[in-house]
Design goal:
Elements: H1 2-14, H2 27-31, E1 52-53, E2 66-73, E3 87-89, E4 92-97, E5 101-106, E6 112-117, E7 136-138, E8 141-145, E9 150-155, E10 161-166, E11 181-183, E12 186-189, E13 201-205, E14 212-217, E15 223-227, E16 233-238, E17 262-265, E18 270-274, E19 295-300, E20 306-311, E21 327-331, E22 334-340, E23 345-350, E24 356-361, E25 369-372, E26 379-381, E27 402-404, E28 418-420, E29 425-431, E30 433-439, E31 453-459, E32 466-471, E33 478-484, E34 492-495, E35 499-503, E36 508-513, E37 519-524, E38 534-538, E39 541-548, H3 554-557, H4 562-565, E40 573-579
Parallel strand pairs: 1-34
Antiparallel strand pairs: 2-40, 3-4, 4-5, 5-6, 7-8, 8-9, 9-10, 11-12, 12-13, 13-14, 14-15, 15-16, 17-18, 18-19, 19-20, 21-22, 22-23, 23-24, 25-26, 27-30, 28-29, 29-32, 30-31, 32-33, 34-35, 35-36, 36-37, 38-39, 39-40
Bound molecules: calcium ion.
C-alpha cells in the first residue's frame, strides 16, 4: 500500500504537466462521476444523465434541517434566465451565468476565485433568452459554449483562456447554450438556432486543444467530415440520402438544432443527441419525414457515424423539438433510454439498437396524435391537429388555425428529468398547456426568424400549468404528481436519501418524498429557479446547490401564461445548503 503511494507520487512528479493544481479531471473520473459523490464533473451528474446521487445524509428524516451554507451573486446589471447546473471539483464550484459568464467559487467559503465574462457582439440571436446551461471539466480545463457560438476553455485555477474556437456564424443565427459533453476522451457539442434555419450538428473535438476530430450534421443530405492532426477535413459520408425525406433545397436550411447537448452511455459507447424542429415550422412546405429532425440520434463517438436514430415527431408541424435528454437506465436486465419528449409522449427505447420498447403520454391532453404504434414506432396522427396550409387559406396568406396541445414550449422543455434506480421511477417536470397555431408563407433569409407560423399559448387548467410527475417507465403510470401554478422550468435531482429536489419559477427549491411526492422541505431563493440542483459530499458533509434567476423562454413566448408569471422578479445567484448542526 505504502509503496504504491510512493510510486504514484514519484509518477506525479515525473509527469511534466503536474503543477500546483490537482492532477486534473480524467476520462476514468468522468466515467465514474455518477458513483463518486465528492465531485460533480458532468452535466447530468454522470454522462448517462440520471441525476441520481448515492448520498444519504440528507434524507426524508433529516431534510427539514437543511439550511443555507452560502449564496453567491452573479452581480452586474445582467440578469435574465439562469439555467446553469454547477460543477464541483477540487474545492471549487464552476457555474455559468446568463450572457456567457462563468465563475469559479471557493466551495468552503462561497468566495469568488475568478470570473470570465465573454465579450459578446451586439448581433447575437438567442431564440429563447441569454441562458447557459453549464460547463464541462477535462484535465485542468473548464469548457463552455457562448451565445456567439464559440467554445472557450479556461484554466480551472486562474480563469485564463487556454483555447478558444469559433464554432459557427452567430449572424446566421447560430448560438450555444448547452453544457458540452465529454465522452471517451472527446468533447462533444451541438448548436442552437433552429428558429433561424441553421443546420444542427454534433462535433467532436480534442478537449485539450479544441481541435476538431469529426463533425456530423443532423439533417439528411449534409456531408459529415473528419479532421486530421493538421485540421485538414476529409469527407466522412453524407447523413442519410439527399432528398429522401426532404423535398427540393429545404434540407439546406433544415434546422434540427442540437441545442440541449447530449448524454453518453459507456456500456453502449454511444452518445445520444436530441434534435430540434425541422425548419421552417410551416410543415406544408416540406412534405416527408424530414430526417433527422425531432429525433434522438445515437452516435458512435469514435467515428461520428450514426448508429441509430428514432424520430419522435416525423414531419413536425408544431415545433416539437426532439432535443430532450435521453437518460439510459436498466429495465428487465436491458440497457434502455428514457425520453420525455416535448410532444407529450414518454419513450422507452433500447439504448443499443434504437428499438422502441414503450411509449405513453405523460401529459393529459395531446391533440396531434392519438398514440404511438409500438410495432412501427410511428405516431398515429390526427390530421385535424395539424395547422392548415397557407396556400389553401384566405388569399394564400394564412392557413387555418388549430388548437394544439402540448404548446410548442412543450410537455417538457430544457429542464432535465431524473431517474432513481432505487424507486425505478423517472421524475419529470411536465407542463399542461396548449396553443392556437397557424401557418404563413415564409422564405429563408440569413439571420431572420424562419418560422412561417404564428401562435398564442394558453394554460389548460385554471389552477396549474406545471406538474412534477413520478413516472413508471414500465407501465406508463403516473405514480404521483405535485401541481405548480407557474410552468415548471428547472431540472430535477433524486437521491438515495429517498428525495426528489426541484425548483419552481415562484422561487422555491423543494424536496419531496421520492415515493409519495409529499413535500418535506422548501426554501425561497429570491428569484425563479429554472435550473437543475446538484449534490456532493465534502468531508463528512453533504451539500446541495442550485442556481436561481427567473427567465428562459416562458417570459418571452408564454402568451396568456404571462398572467401566471409576470409578477416574478429576475435574479442571478447560486445557493448552497447543508444540514444544520443544531
Ligand atoms: Ca424549436
Amino acid at each position: 500500500m505504502k509503496r504504491n503511494l510512493i510510486a504514484a507520487l514519484v509518477g506525479m512528479m515525473a509527469c511534466s504537466s503536474f503543477s500546483a493544481h490537482a492532477l486534473g479531471v480524467t476520462d476514468a473520473m468522468i466515467a465514474n462521476d455518477a458513483k463518486a459523490p465528492n465531485n460533480v464533473l458532468s452535466w447530468g451528474m454522470g454522462t448517462q444523465g440520471q441525476r441520481f446521487s448515492p448520498l444519504t445524509q440528507i434524507n426524508t428524516q433529516t431534510v427539514n434541517k437543511l439550511v443555507p451554507a452560502w449564496s453567491f451573486s452573479f452581480g452586474g446589471e445582467k440578469q435574465r434566465g439562469q439555467e446553469s447546473q454547477p460543477l464541483i471539483y477540487n474545492g471549487k464550484m464552476f457555474v455559468t451565468g446568463s450572457y456567457s459568464r462563468i465563475y469559479a467559487i471557493d466551495l468552503k467559503t462561497g468566495a469568488k476565485l475568478w470570473k470570465y465574462e465573454h465579450r459578446l457582439p451586439d448581433g447575437i440571436m438567442p431564440c429563447c433568452d441569454v441562458v447557459n446551461r453549464g460547463a464541462a471539466l477535462y484535465d485542468n480545463l473548464v469548457i463552455f459554449g457562448t451565445l456567439d457560438a464559440q467554445l472557450v476553455a479556461l484554466d480551472q485555477d486562474t480563469g485564463k483562456i487556454v483555447w478558444k474556437e469559433k464554432v459557427d456564424d452567430y449572424a446566421a443565427g447560430y448560438s450555444m447554450s448547452a453544457a458540452p459533453l465529454i465522452a471517451n476522451g472527446l468533447l462533444l457539442t451541438g448548436v442552437s438556432g433552429g428558429e433561424f434555419g441553421v443546420v444542427g450538428r454534433v462535433e467532436a473535438r480534442n478537449p485539450k486543444t479544441g481541435q476538431l476530430v469529426w463533425s456530423r450534421p443532423m439533417i439528411e443530405g449534409h456531408m459529415g467530415y473528419k479532421y486530421d492532426k493538421d485540421g485538414k477535413a476529409t469527407e466522412n459520408g453524407v447523413t442519410g440520402t439527399v432528398n429522401k425525406s426532404w423535398p427540393g433545397d429545404l434540407w439546406k436550411t433544415g434546422g434540427g438544432a442540437t441545442w440541449l447537448g447530449g448524454t453518453y452511455d459507456p456500456t453502449t459507447k454511444l452518445a445520444y443527441f436530441g434534435t430540434g424542429n425541422p425548419a421552417p415550422w410551416n410543415s406544408h412546405l416540406r412534405p416527408g419525414d424530414n430526417l433527422y429532425s425531432a429525433s434522438t440520434v445515437a452516435l458512435d463517438v469514435d467515428t461520428g457515424k450514426i448508429k441509430w436514430s428514432y424520430q419522435t415527431t416525423p414531419h413536425d408541424g408544431w415545433d416539437y423539438d426532439g432535443v430532450n435528454e435521453f437518460v439510459t437506465f436498466d429495465m428487465d436486465g436491458k440497457r434502455m433510454g428514457g425520453k420525455a419528449d416535448r410532444n407529450g409522449f414518454f419513450y422507452v427505447i433500447d439504448a443499443k439498437d434504437g428499438k422502441l420498447e414503450n411509449a405513453f403520454p405523460f401529459v393529459k391532453k395531446i391533440t396531434w396524435a392519438s398514440g404511438i404504434d409500438l410495432k412501427t414506432g410511428r405516431p398515429n396522427y390526427l390530421e385535424s391537429g395539424r395547422p392548415g396550409d397557407p396556400t389553401k387559406g384566405e388569399e394564400g396568406k394564412k392557413g387555418a388555425t388549430v388548437f394544439a396541445a402540448p404548446a410548442f414550449l412543450g410537455a417538457k422543455n430544457q429542464m432535465p428529468m431524473a431517474y432513481s434506480p432505487q424507486t425505478k421511477l423517472f421524475y419529470v417536470p411536465a407542463n399542461e398547456w396548449g396553443m392556437d397555431i397557424w401557418n404563413e408563407p415564409v422564405t429563408y433569409k440569413k439571420g431572420g426568424a424562419f418560422l412561417g407560423a404564428g401562435f398564442t399559448i394558453h394554460p389548460l387548467n385554471e389552477d396549474y400549468i406545471g406538474a412534477m410527475r413520478a413516472i413508471d417507465p414500465k407501465t406508463g403510470k403516473i405514480v404521483w404528481e405535485v401541481k405548480n401554478s407557474a410552468p415548471l422550468w428547472g431540472g430535477v435531482m433524486t437521491t438515495a436519501g429517498g428525495l426528489v429536489f426541484y425548483g419552481t419559477p415562484e422561487g422555491f427549491l423543494k424536496a419531496v418524498d421520492a415515493k409519495t411526492g409529499k413535500e418535506l422541505w422548501k426554501f425561497q431563493t429570491g428569484s425563479g429557479v429554472v435550473a437543475p440542483p446538484v449534490t456532493w459530499k465534502d468531508g463528512d458533509t453533504q451539500y446541495i446547490a442550485v442556481t436561481s434567476g427567473w427567465g428562459g423562454a416562458v417570459p418571452l413566448w408564454g402568451g396568456e401564461v404571462a398572467k401566471k408569471v409576470n409578477f416574478l422578479e429576475q435574479g442571478g445567484s447560486v445557493w448552497v445548503f447543508k444540514l444544520s448542526s443544531k
